[in-house]
Amino acid sequence: MNIGEIAKMAGVSKAAVSRYFNQGYVSEEKREAIRRVVEETGYRPSVQAQTLRTKKTKMVGVILPKMNSASMGSVVSGILAALNEKGYQLLLADTQNNPKKELEYLKLFDDKQVDGVILAATVFTSGHKKTLKSMNVPVVIVGQRLPGCHCVYHDDYHSIYDMAALLLEKGRKNLGYIGVLQQDKAVGAERCKGFCDAVQEGGYENLKEQMVISGFSIEDGYQAMEKLMKMYKNLDGVVCATDEIAIGAMQYLKSVHVKIPGQMMVTGHGDSILAKVTNPTLTTVHFSYEESGMEAARMLLKLLDKEESAVREIKLGYHIVEQQTT
Questions:
Q1: CB-based burial label for 87 (10 Å; 0-12, 13-18, 19+)
Q2: H/E element holding 160?
Q3: What DSSP element (H or E) covers 59?
Q4: Average pLDDT, the chain
Q5: Percent of the chain, pLDDT > 70?
Q6: Does the pLDDT of residue 68 top 80, yes or no?
Q7: What is the pLDDT of residue 47?
Q8: 129 phi and psi angles, rounded to 5 deg
Q9: Sheet-wide strand order for 59-64
Q10: Sign of the torsion formed by the C-alpha atoms of 210, 215, 220 and 221
Q11: What does the DSSP assignment read for 121-156?
């Protein structure tokens, strides 16, 4: 079977069949006629032939730091929702939090393997900036802001600022902070700055020093909380950069019989499912991760359709989900 035979059987032109398979405009009457023939014959257009003819693969590469992250799962759901509407498929690449792998996948996808790329970046090295600048396919960054690039990101600074301010308002005056590496501009640098500015403006500048750097896992949070407690005495609250870190911190506090929230208030970030099932439930920050994925995909699709060329940045909002740990 070929397009000509499909067109003849459906009583339409070959151009109409071509538009049907490429999500172009076809009248409802003709679309239904083509659909019936396609269903009866089981015809599927050749992907290779379409690629040669249109110079498009109808594939989008998505580069993630880790597949088993709840937030990344929501981002991918949003991306898929937008891509499916336009008939695009998705190729996932998991870097396992390795910035060098991000560069490898960017270069691989740039070799015309996909029409465009959505990058959930962790850090931006000089190598990243050089590679992104030289890409032949459009790239949209999700979760981080990089000036000069198309990106969709969250208000990491104000979300942690407001969380630290909340604990101060509740009378906690000896706060600690568990963050991640500063090279991660969003989760590391921006959230850390938000905490520091909140305690300084609240009149507790000394608290800026009461922090430790952690990895992203629950185990990392456990170890970081232990370290924080040994370094700084009489803490009455801890602000954590992620929910996983906060849950690890809670596990350590329970192991040494510190009452939550009586003796220690704990907050996370991300509004994951885990935050709702901890005991006590975790006060956290809600980000619209699925919306960020959807917006990133829509931005990329507009670039692919030549509807947009100017660099765009979209910053999404947040809200605090106050639960039992505060």
A1: exposed
A2: helix 156-169
A3: strand 59-64
A4: 91
A5: 96
A6: no
A7: 53
A8: -60, -40
A9: 89-94, 59-64, 116-119, 139-142, 150-154, 313-316
A10: positive
A11: -S---HHHHHHHHH-SS-EEEESS--TTSEEEEE-H
Say if CB 246 and CB 216 are below 8 A apart: no
Structure tokens at 250: 């809670």
Catalogue the E-assigned strands of 123-249: 139-142, 150-154, 175-179, 211-213, 237-240
The predicted model gives 42-56 an average pLDDT of: 60
* Cis upstream peptide for 138 (omega within 30°): no
Q: Once rounded to an integer, what is the mean pLDDT over residues 240-263?
A: 97
Read off the pLDDT of each residue in 241-250 and give the average, rounded to a whole number.
Answer: 97
Instruction: Specify which residues 238 forms β-bridges with.
Output: 176, 266
> CA 198 to CA 194: how far, in whole Å?
6
What pLDDT is recorded for position 52? 45
The amino acid present at 39, given as its one-letter code, is: E
CB atoms within 10 A of CB 71: 24
Lowest mean pLDDT of 86-90, 190-194, 198-202, 207-211, name the range: 86-90
pLDDT in tens, 313-323: 999 999 999 99
User: What mean pLDDT do residues 303-324 have?
Assistant: 91
Name the token pair of 256. Answer: 């040494």
Structure token digits, residue 160: 């942690």
Closest of 105, 279, 249, 107 to residue 176, by C-alpha = 249
Contacts of 139 (CB under 8 A, 6+ apart): 106, 116, 117, 118, 119, 132, 149, 150
Distance CA 152, CA 287 (A): 12
pLDDT, tens only, 123-158? 888 999 999 999 999 999 999 999 999 999 999 999
| Separation of alpha carbons 208 and 295, rounded Å | 35
Coil vs helix vs strand at 225: helix
